[in-house]
Design brief:
5-stranded mixed beta sheet; alpha+beta; homohexamer; Tetrahydropterin Synthase, Chain A
C-alpha cells in the first residue's frame, strides 16, 4: 500500500543551450533563441514525488519538513538565482536542457533519500513545457 | 484501450496531527505546528481518477454526473466543513495526515465503484503539498 | 533512462453528445445538457507527453519546436474554432466525448511520431473534468 | 470602509461572432475563425465582485450562499450548455462577444442586487483573454 | 508615476463563524456549515499590494525581501496553523469572516508601512471565494 | 460604459539588478542574489489591459488579434530569450527591476495604441511577485 507524497519548490536561473563540439551555425539551427550567448532564463517549478509505505506511528511516508529542507539545501541553494552554465559544476560540461536538469536533480536527491523510497521528478521550464524523470 | 477520467472536487476541514500513544513533547517534535491542540485547517482539493474501457454506446468510461454525485455523497458530505478528528468516524482513531486521508478516500470510493474500473486518488492539502494513492 | 517531455496546447470548439441509434428521449436522459441540439462548447487544454532517451548530442528527447509545430498542424488547425460534429471527419460518426477525443488525438499524433518514442495524451474539457490515454 | 467580495462561477456555451448587416466576406475579415457558421465554444469563467460595508452583526458584506445561488439562477441556468446566439434572448440580436456578454451579465445581476452594493464583473473567455465591466 | 508591487503569501488556519449575541438556531441559519462548533479550516492565500513611486536609485518601490519578511513576521507567524477564534487576540471578539480578516490584515500591515505607500489586501478563503480591502 | 479587455502574453529573459554608481558591496547588500554578475532569469507573464467603449458594429473594444500581434511585435520579439541588460536598449542604462520593466512596457505600448483607449500593465516576475502600472 504505497502512497506518493509530492512537494513543490521553486528556483529561477539563467542558462544557454549549447553544444561546444558544434559550429555556431549548427548550435543556432538546433537551439534557436535558446542558444543566445548572452543567456536567457526561467522560473523553474519543481515537483519532488517520494513514494513508500505509510509509517503507522506517524501516518506519514516521509517528514515533509525534512523533505522541504532537503530540497532547499540540495536544489534551491545550488541553482536559485544562478547561471547554470557558469555557476554550477553540474552543468559546466552538460547542456542545461530541462531533460538533463531533471535527471541531475533526480540523481542529487536520490543519493540523499533512503533506498526504500521511490523518487520521481517533474520540472516545469515554462508553464507550457515540462519534463519528468523517470518517464 | 483503457482511458482515465478525472473529476476534481473540493472540501475544507479542520484537523490536528497527533499520536495519543506519544507524550505531548514527542507529538510536538514530530508534528510541529500541525499538532496545535486547538486545530488548524485546509482547503482540500481532490482528484478522483477512474480508468476503464470506453463504452461504445455512450463514448464514455463512466457517467461523469454519476461520479460527481458519488463524490458529493460519499466524500464532500462526510468531510466538508468538519473537524476530521472530532466529527468523523474514519479519523477518530486514525491520524488525519494527507496520506491516511488519501487511502481512506480511496477505500470509500473503491467500495462503491464497479470492480472492472481502476481507481486512483490525488489529494492536495495545500497548493504545494499533495499525495497520491496508489503510488 | 527515459525522460518524458510534456507540451501544452489549446483549442476551443463546439460539440454535441448524441447517439443517432437512440431515441431523443434516451439521448436526453444519458447526455443531459450535453445533448443540446444547438451545441455547446469548451476550451480544450491539451497535454502531449512524449517519452524516450535523451539524445546526448542535444540533451533533448525531442525538438520542442518540432513537437509544438506538429501539434499546431495536426490538432489545432483541425479542431480549433470548429464544430466537432459538423466540421471534422473524425467525429462525423463518432461521439465527441472527451474520452473519444483523447484516443483520436493519440492516434493522429502516434502516426506522426517516431516509433521509438512513447506517447500519452491528457485532455481537459473543463478545469474540473479531464481524461488521459493510455490510462 | 468598503470591502469587496468575489465569487467565481463557471459555464460553457457555443457561440458565433457575426454582424448580420455585413456581407459574409466582411464578417470573415473582422471575426475570422470566430465567424464559423457552425459555431465554436468556450468554458467561461466568471468572477462576480460585490462591494459594500461589512454588516457588524454578521461580519459579512453579503451572504455568499445567497450570491452563489443568484449567480446559479440568473447566469448559469441561462447560459450553461447553451448556444448563445440561438438559445438565449439576450444574444439573439446582440453579438455575443466577451465584451457584450460582460455588460449583459452585469445588467442582469445589477437588477437583482441591493442598490447600496457596487458590482463589477470579470469574464474569462479563454485562459489568455478576459474582460471586465466597469473598466 | 506610481507602480504597485504585489507579494503573495500563504497561511492555513481553523475558524468558526459565530455571533455570541445570537441563539444557536440563528447562528446555524445565518452561518450554516461555517458555524460548526468543532471548527473547520482553510488554506488562506494572501496578496499584499503596496503602491508608490519608483526609487530611482534602486528601481524599486519597496524592498521585496523586507516586505516578504514583514508579512512573515506580522501575518504568517500570527495566523498560520492557528485556531483564529481561540489562538489570536484579533478574533477573540471579532467574527473571523474573510471580510473581517481582510480588514484586520490591512490594519496590521498599514501600521508597519511608510505612510507614503498605499496598501491593498486581497485574501482568498477558497479558490472560488475571495475578498479585497479597500474595495 | 467602458469595458476592459485583457490579453495575456509570455516571455522569458535573463537579467541582473545592479546600480553602476554603487560599490559592489552596496549592490550586493541591496539586490542580494539578484545582483549575481553571471545573471539569473525569469518567465515573465504579461497582462495587457486596454479599456474603452464597445464598438456597436463589432461588439468589441479592440481587435484582439491586432492586440496580440502588437504585443508579439513590440514586446515578445524585443525581450523574449534576451539578456535584458546586454541585449536591449531599454535596459542598457536602466535597472531591469519588475517595476521599471512594467513602466517601459507601458510606454512602448502606449505609443502604439489609439489615445482614446486606456492602458494598464501587469507583469509577473515569479508566480509570487508581480507589479502593475499605473498603480
Amino acid at each position: 500500500m504505497k502512497v506518493a507524497v509530492i512537494r513543490k519548490a521553486h528556483f529561477n536561473a539563467a542558462h544557454r543551450l549549447h553544444n561546444p563540439s558544434w559550429s555556431d551555425q549548427k548550435n543556432q539551427e538546433v537551439f534557436g533563441l535558446c542558444n543566445n550567448p548572452n543567456w536567457h532564463g526561467h522560473n523553474y517549478e519543481l515537483e519532488v514525488k517520494v513514494s513508500g509505505d505509510i509509517d503507522p506511528e506517524t501516518g506519514m511516508v516521509i517528514d515533509l519538513g525534512w523533505l522541504a529542507d532537503l530540497i532547499k539545501q540540495e536544489i534551491e541553494l545550488r541553482f536559485d538565482h544562478k547561471n547554470l552554465n557558469l555557476d554550477t559544476v553540474e552543468f559546466r560540461d552538460l547542456n542545461p536542457t530541462a531533460e538533463n536538469m531533471c535527471v541531475v536533480i533526480w540523481q542529487i536527491l536520490r543519493a540523499k533519500l533512503p533506498e526504500i523510497l521511490d523518487l520521481h521528478i517533474r520540472l516545469y521550464e515554462t508553464p507550457r513545457n515540462f519534463v519528468e524523470f523517470p518517464a
